[in-house]
Amino acid sequence: MGGQWDGARLSGAGNHPRKLKVFAGNGKTGQMADVVRLQLFLLMGEFAASAIVQKDRSMTETKMTRETLPAGEVLCSYCTARCCRYFAMQIDRPKTREQYDHLRWYLLHGPYSVFVDGESWYLMVPGDCKHILPDYRCGIYETRPQICRTYTTDECEYDNDGVYDQLFETPEQLWEYALAVLPAEPRRSVNGPVSLPILQVS
Questions:
Q1: Which of 1, 9, 113, 175 has the most CB atoms around it within 10 Å of its CB?
Q2: Is the dihedral of CA 109, 160, 115, 180 positive or negative?
Q3: In this structure, how many other beta carbons lie within 10 angstroms of the beta carbon of residue 50?
Q4: How many alpha carbons lie under 13 Å from residue 100 in its C-beta half-sphere?
Q5: Quick one: which H or E segment has residue 101?
Q6: Which one is predicted more confidently, 152 or 47?
Q7: Which of 32, 33, 25, 31 is nearest to 7 (CA)?
Q8: Phi/psi of residue 177, each to 5°?
């Protein structure tokens, strides 16, 4: 296509909003293009136009709230299955250096985290349930585990911003906290005895 571009516009011809008609410098109509994502850079000036077609429920729908939920409906219909993308196991609150070291060992093995909610400590393991459907519904709803059946939306993650009393996402964060709350280890005095391992020489 010869000549420089002097303009571009989205054409509504044929009631097809995804058709683009580009005009060359000689005024003749260029080739028609059926596009989903278009980024057009013009040679004259720093102008960029982009058209993006997305199908995302979270972006196209107004977020439902607990207060505006219609009678007879459930929050799950407006959620992205947030409660199905991790599980948390309650653990004993660490009280010793050794117990904190055990928790640090957990965090060294993957994208896990430890959080504190009130007086309770939890180990959180991220991971999507393999039965989440594309529309975020449960693929095994009739045979879902009992823990899913007893879980309610009364205080679920739907509108929870994930704020915890403490959240440790790395072993370094956890260990820094441990050193701050645990009593300091006694230091050996200069004149104190030194215990060295005994080496056996054959």
A1: 113
A2: positive
A3: 9
A4: 18
A5: helix 97-107
A6: 152
A7: 25
A8: -65, -40
